[in-house]
């Protein structure tokens, strides 16, 4: 039966066979149809260099098949085995502090290590070759939650190769990095070091002396891990045409998922909200993940049925939340609802992480009952939602480059966080009930009436032109403080702020104030007064009309929010760090003009 | 005259001989009869490899003897000398961050260093040989405040040897550490690394990916330092039958003092309470120290007469506190009341640490007067309390393994600290005036009517059976949330919580909620309502009667405290993080049943 | 025309020539007459070892000359170039954590590196040789904001050489460092390590086991950087007699500017106050800088016209503040008012730092207008203030040694910070309108009626005698808690506190209480009651009269403030951490006696 897949991560290699029977008995009770298998079995399937042993994995996959369950089969490279780290010390990472790690934990493979590259691809090849024909296998799962960064000499070498590719000449690189500043002009590629606590950074990963170097390293590292993924995928593709994915992590800063999207056959992600009131944040994450593949459905690859373990305080999901949030995922485009984990491990750091089946092996617990009830509901749903798409006339631009450069900048205010700004504008759209797509800055914008670009610090390529086109044909474009500041190299535009967005916005910004969070500047919007904090741009209209004004400080009475008639549409500029009410006021004005307020907008 | 020993650490090697006369003159005024000598004289008595020079120490000991004072003589290995670190770089430790230290500070000898092992034992041998016949010497003092940890390659090698001893086979080790998780299966002993920031730990010493590895390293490191102590003791024993000790530190997490107890001829400890209101904490520490040697008296080896220096803020002990706390030590079993330090040093980091004699050399200061008054009191006391023992019918279980595994666990709530829980239950017993012993989980429990086991995360050996026996014969056993969770290897019991304690408690726990400290769940206990915080286990009675219930959240009305009739006695289970009033309510119920409330219980 | 110099840091090598025209056009508008040039051009003027290329710098200097502007010409050694770090890895520093850095950031030259020493001096020599004859050049600027510290082996070697120079024998060194404590007696110079996180320090740079070692390393490192400055200055002097300076940083702890003062031809400093209400702090900094050269005028080398970039939150300077603070500098002795920076860079970490000319290239911004208005004002002022001096009868002693030893001490209270105490007493003097000099402890005190020495922890040389002379001839000497504690080696005086200050103060201090900041002890002063916090010395009068008494705790009623008649004058002692009102009360009493209250003292 075609239906929303239901199941999750299953690691029976951790327990005796006798328990497997009980597992499948309980899976039946809960209508579990899909198991993610083998994510961490490298040490088991490849116990020594050149030695491969698939006996246990064979039995796991065969049993799943025999029970009629589908398998999302991992290549097993989510963590490397001890023997590999011992034989090739290069495979463990060197951290931001310059410390070469040794075997341990989970995320520890250097993406530039030849040994890791060769042996992970070889394992992927063998797994694909062996199980391509299994009737249970429906998808391939590569690696696990790619992330982090390595600063080793191999990565340094690979970074320099990546830079040669990007810049061709040192002159181009010196210009992009603005190396005349602080005597940094490089005269030999070999002089270039990864930006770390030992080189360019003076207080952690966000405080760098050279934003351009750090930005390029972020891009490079994202690409380096993508190359690992591609290598495994290529190895799989030689034996199987089934879709290949890896589990992403929503709004995860270290990796530019937009650069990865083309290589994923479908998107999937792990949803671990920080608290019980994260519904809006999750909505954004779902939309971002759906937006990776142009609106194509994704898998919810992991969620906990009850609690996490890795946080300082790990509260229980309240009754009903599991159901509510699972349906939210489906509503946002998920074609699979999967758990981490099907059964709790007995040892190591996830033994207290929630599981469908606990240490007591019971079906009469609240958690199991909720899981089983949801299984029954999804079964009744059948294929009603599969492959469904939501046509949206609102686009929210999400841009890793802007995220990175905003947060690695010195000045004006480190407390302005990219995600906070994006969340605020997304929240307003979500509360207003607008259907929306979260898309990259390279997306085709011709289908949208409203484009919202919060904190779009970097404007690159022909984006400004395409945004102008949206307004020209009658659409509305909204952007905020700290947008239009830098080009693709993080060089400030040598012109008035907001750079290439200035014509569309009909304003300029000569100066900007920053204050700690306890300083509030009231902003007058129509008959309302809202609060603004952290960042206060002093906006000089140049064609735009004033929509809102500051109420305090030496710039009281000057514009905080403006609207510029541009062609048949509008450019909206929000220069102040408005509170939720302020953002809602502006966003609803914009939506209302296009009749895009949802039917339940008043309930928010 | 036999009496409570009175005196303290005395380092006259730091000042000219002329001052020694004044020292002894003031000692006489203060009735000082015992001096701890030579704790940091390695550089003096062994100024180069193979060179020994006891001239100064001879004069110190001879002068003490001549003055009629006893000497607790240190081997001098509390800190190693510069020449040793220079000649053998191995003797300085490698820290948790993987950094090899160089000479400096105080606690810096790698316990696995052959050079340190050989030369510290040799120094101990020579000291014992030389001073065994001194009439002044009454005890030997080895090392100083053993503690910390080393992560060097020598310790790695020693750890692997310790593991081979413990597990014999890699299969056994892999099972104990649950290495199938995250691809950790070890196929060669050489693959095993000390768990550190460079290997298994992701955020400091408590955040490990593999609890089993970290637990074993804690055990190993405690044993490694014990081996250092044993080596020195053996060297001493060849020349002297006098008792050997080292100064412990009360509730000190890094060392499992219960594993050390057999090797100490008598216990001694250094008492530096964090503030003026630590009387209950000190009572627990005294009881724990007394419990090391089955109730035998101990020495209070160090306390400050006035103030510490190493804290950010070092308040003065208010007038009278010195006397009060010294008598508290005696009341809890101390046969010696000693100070750090007899005279203040002029330089380095302890020059502002309180001393019996200050830089001004005066006898007319408040502090000196208080010291002298107490000296006179102790002289009047004579031998009245020496060797005294307190028969107790209440036992509090204290368990380093549970301490360690509770605090290195991921989930459910890192804010639940073992010591906080133990302190809360001890405090309730102390306020109620119950005589009690603080004992290890291996202690003989047959003499106790009440056994309290707070946060007994690990249950090992036959402990569950012995606790059942206490209840079976009419006693009361009380345990709390997060007890009975793991076996000796930190593997979750594959059964209902609280594992082997479940039959005695007559309950099971399917799920547990954790919340930040600002969330309060009121608990109804009889006619009282108390508060609970941090941890809220959802208790399902299986024979137990409900004593207290939650007042809020989705589990309002369900049991928070239960009592189970077991044989002629009871098993009490407290599933909630009760406040002091709640703990007192439960503890007094238990004590009252056995008529163990003290005469002044109502004064608390 | 002789006038207050006006201009700032100018880095046209960062932008195309076309922009230079606009720069000078705007400079004319703003009456800019002085440009600091070449601070970071090492990579440009010396692009490879042995290769020098002054083409760009020639054009910059020539253009300035042609425009009639003066140049403060830097040697360009404020940051070293990539090729140098690559060729000589020794030039990058090893940090406090023992990590050898690699190329990056700005402050990274090891002062002990032979390569850095040789090549920086050679560059200075060539710059001086080439531009000595330029009519535009008016001063030489060496390095940039010297600071930080290095802990490499070369520095270790240089430290040992410095120690041999200071102590001659190991016996003298062992005595000074009090190495008998904790078995630290050094028997070979080679055993001595720089005090770092890997050796003597147990929690950051202030927490050391051996204060003497850390103190000497601070002195050594200050001297090591001074040697770098001297080497460049000597190279310049061979070709030019123009004055040489480097930009200092006001109250900057790592460098003892008093040890540098003789080598500076004039003082200059960079003023970046942390907030809008730092006028008193800036006044102290100006006075300290003026005091370096015996009252001779100094340059304000850098200030931002609008905002900083490197702080977490970088607020705008409110309108008018730039003018107010610039005039404050002139009033305190500045003969130059310069900005960082003349034009904003487009890339790297200072692109959002304020500038006279922003990315928009405008003259019609508020900031540019304020800069231009001030330029016009200074032009009108002409030479009226040049070279002016303020005769003062009040001296405030500022002492880096006391700063260091106070803050690296263990006990009594780490929350007592040297600068807070000095600021409090300076503030009181400043509010009272007293003209004052901020001078080193070696200064000639014969011209002062009042000498204030807050937190003078170390008393060295003949200072006590000279302070007694001030009082003897009718002057007033005021000191506070934690003064007179240690000698030049940080050894506690073997006598009553406050050591050599005791006769003058007529008191002794047997004990001292320390409490966290929420504990207040009211102090009665005349008819007022003020608050005291953090430190409460218990003062025993020995000739002094009681001026103020504690109101609480067991020492209620005992003296907190005393005054001792000494010769024709007074010694005042403040034993308590008084609040601002309390300090003001005492300070005004002292000033009033000498009729030194300013005319606007009541406005404060
Ligand atoms: Zn790498
Ligand atoms: Zn070691
Ligand atoms: Zn160095």
TrEMBL record, chains A, B, C:
Residues involved in substrate binding: 106, 144
Keyword Hydrolase applies: yes
Residues in Glycoside hydrolase family 42 N-terminal domain copies: 9-381
Chemical reaction(s) catalysed: Hydrolysis of terminal non-reducing beta-D-galactose residues in beta-D-galactosides
Record keyword Hydrolase present: yes
Beta-galactosidase trimerisation domain ranges (all copies): 392-596
EC category: hydrolase
Pfam families hit by this protein: Glyco_hydro_42 (PF02449), Glyco_hydro_42C (PF08533), Glyco_hydro_42M (PF08532)
Swiss-Prot/TrEMBL GO biological process terms: galactose metabolic process
Active site: 145, 302
Highest taxon listed in the record's lineage: Bacteria
Keywords: Glycosidase, Hydrolase, Metal-binding, Zinc
GO molecular function: beta-galactosidase activity; metal ion binding
GO cellular component: beta-galactosidase complex
Enzyme Commission number(s) of this protein: 3.2.1.23
Record-listed Zn(2+) binding positions: 110, 150, 152, 155
Homology family: Belongs to the glycosyl hydrolase 42 family.
Name of the featured protein: Beta-galactosidase
